[in-house]
Specification:
about 300 residues; alpha/beta; about 30% helix; binds iron/sulfur cluster; binds magnesium ion; ABC_transporter-like_ATP-bd; ATP binding
Length: about 300
């Protein structure tokens, strides 16, 4: 709720902040239990920072993270019910630890077993949940393929029996042929364990497939949020339209009738964002007011949109 995360990237000699990166600005999201919320946007728009702030890896500059009715953003520890799957399965696994040690670490941190036997049984259970065998428990990450390493990362995330998993581009570092397998695994696990996902991605086709609701981010702000069907069938925000225009459509009939918007220009420097609507430097519909006032995210007939065209 109204979550912001700002980083000081430069200070004066006297310690006064001189450059601040407003990575996440006043972001409000709502994820229902058992649901997948897709969070999309170009790289550098603040998706990962949002996920990490919800997870407790960063302390919010302002705003709250409310989990099961409890404000957890003031706590100084990470919540065991919220776990994360990272983008890069190569970098996120310690090369000197065996798979059993990697998956067993969260069990240890949270004291989730009473005997070594129980710990091993749990590790084997987790391995089979993600489609790996117990014989693989004593191997090291380098002995596995990219897809298998991501399975290890998923098993580690599941160790504490979390409720919410933040998936930060979990497949974008994998071969295309492996991506669908990992997505199917995530879906099966969601069904089987009743998990809730925040699914961060820039692959819009994948997000459409896996999410029930989608939020679109631009320069640290949510510009539109809607059910997946509404968002993809009828995008309202000019930035969402532009993002969706970039997906190739195999059917030529649809291609002709669809309103295509080309994104002009570069993503502005997030250290020096435009005044007014952050999208005004690239928006084909920008009006005078767009350069002066930043539109707030408003509920318009059940859809959330931040754009002066809809006021
Ligand atoms: Fe475009 Fe203005 Fe809407 Fe921003 S507020 S998206 S600049 S029309
Ligand atoms: Mg990222």
């Amino acid at each position: 709720k109204n979550l912001s995360k700002h980083f000081v990237v430069e200070r004066s000699f006297w310690g006064k902040p001189t450059k601040i990166l407003k990575a996440v600005n006043n972001v409000s999201l709502n994820i229902d239990e058992g649901e997948t919320l897709g969070l999309v946007g170009e790289s550098g728009c603040g998706k990962s920072t949002t996920g990490r702030t919800i997870m407790g890896l960063y302390k919010p500059t302002s705003g709250e993270v409310i989990f099961n009715g409890e404000n957890i953003s003031k706590q100084n520890k990470m919540h065991k019910d919220i776990q994360m799957i990272f983008q890069d399965p190569y970098a996120s696994l310690n090369p000197r630890m065996t798979v059993a040690d990697i998956i067993g670490e969260p069990l240890e941190i949270h004291h989730l077993y009473s005997s070594l036997n129980e710990k091993n049984r749990r590790i084997h259970e987790l391995l089979s949940l993600v489609g790996l065998s117990r014989e693989q428990a004593n191997r090291f990450p380098h002995e596995f393929s990219g897809g298998q390493r991501q399975r290890i990362g998923i098993a580690r995330a599941l160790a504490c029996e979390p409720k919410l998993i933040i998936c930060d581009e979990p497949i974008s570092a994998l071969d295309v042929s492996i991506q669908a397998q990992v997505i199917n695994l995530l879906e099966e696990l969601q069904q089987y364990l009743g998990l809730t996902y925040l699914f961060i991605a820039h692959d819009l086709a994948m997000v459409r497939y896996i999410s029930q609701k989608v939020a679109v981010m631009y320069l640290g702000r949510i510009v539109e949020m809607a059910t997946t069907e509404d968002l993809y069938e009828n995008p309202l925000h000019p930035y969402t339209k532009a993002l969706l225009s970039a997906i190739p459509i195999p059917d030529p009939k649809i291609e002709k009738t669809k309103q295509r918007i080309q994104l002009k220009g570069e993503l502005p420097n997030p250290l020096n964002p435009p005044t007014g609507c952050p999208f005004n430097t690239r928006c084909p519909y920008a009006k005078d007011i767009c350069k002066k006032e930043n539109p707030e995210l408003k509920n318009i007939n059940g859809r959330y949109i931040a754009c002066h065209l809809f006021e």
